[in-house]
Amino acid sequence: MSKLRTDVTIDSLRERQRGRLPDLLGFRATALEEGVLRAELDVRDDLLAPNGFLHAATVIGLADTACGYACLAHLPPGAKSFTTIELKSNFLGTALEGTITAVATGVHLGRSTQVWDATVSGPDGKTIALFRCTQMVLY
User: Fold this and answer.
1) What are 71-97's pLDDT values in tens digits?
2) CA distance 131 to 50
3) At what angle do helices 10-17 and 56-73 cross, to 10 degrees?
4) Cβ-count burial 60-94 (b if 16+ within 10 Å, e if not)
5) Residues above pLDDT 90, as percent of the chain
6) d(CA 41, CA 120)
7) Model pTM?
8) What angle do CA 121, 16, 101 make, to 5 degrees?
9) pLDDT, tens digit, for every residue of 107-129?
10) Separation between Cα atoms, residue 61 and residue 41, nearest integer Å
11) With the C-alpha atoms ordered 91, 126, 64, 115, is the resulting torsion angle positive or negative?
């Protein structure tokens, strides 16, 4: 199992995303520990779909970024990066305002692949999405 890297911090992740999609979405990593990354995102009008509900891509952006940052923080020794090779999401609800949160949890942290799950919750704490991705570790 990969160990949490000491060179990846909340601050380094914030700097890494500056001017990129996670920054545009308003993604905020809030906690990083062994096997887990927590994050949040404020729901804004420009993140809603034309039907007025939270856009699925916003939820996936939160979950995928949380899992990706967690993967980066848990790369094995000698690994340079990673790339997503599969992702899936099940939507169970939505949010129209407030802050949504994601908890990314490592399921498999191997030398060639990693599998991460994220649970996305609405402001009321109810689960609005379940997300899973597989990352290929790049050397």
Assistant:
1) 999 999 999 999 999 999 999 999 999
2) 23
3) 130
4) bbbbbbbbbbbbbbbbbeebeebeeeebebebeeb
5) 99
6) 10
7) 0.96
8) 5
9) 999 999 999 999 999 999 999 99
10) 10
11) negative
List, as one string, the DSSP characters of 45-85: GGGB-TTSSBPHHHHHHHHHHHHHHHHHHTPPTT--EEEEE
Residue with tokens 């949504």: 100
Q: Can you list the domains of the chain with their CATH numbers?
A: 10-138 (3.10.129.10)
Centroid of chain to Cα 3: 18
What span, in angstroms and rounded, lies between the C-alpha atoms of 44 and 109? 34
Q: Are 111 and 71 in contact (CB under 8 A)?
A: no
Find, among 103, 126, 99, 129, the residue nearest to 116 by Cα: 103
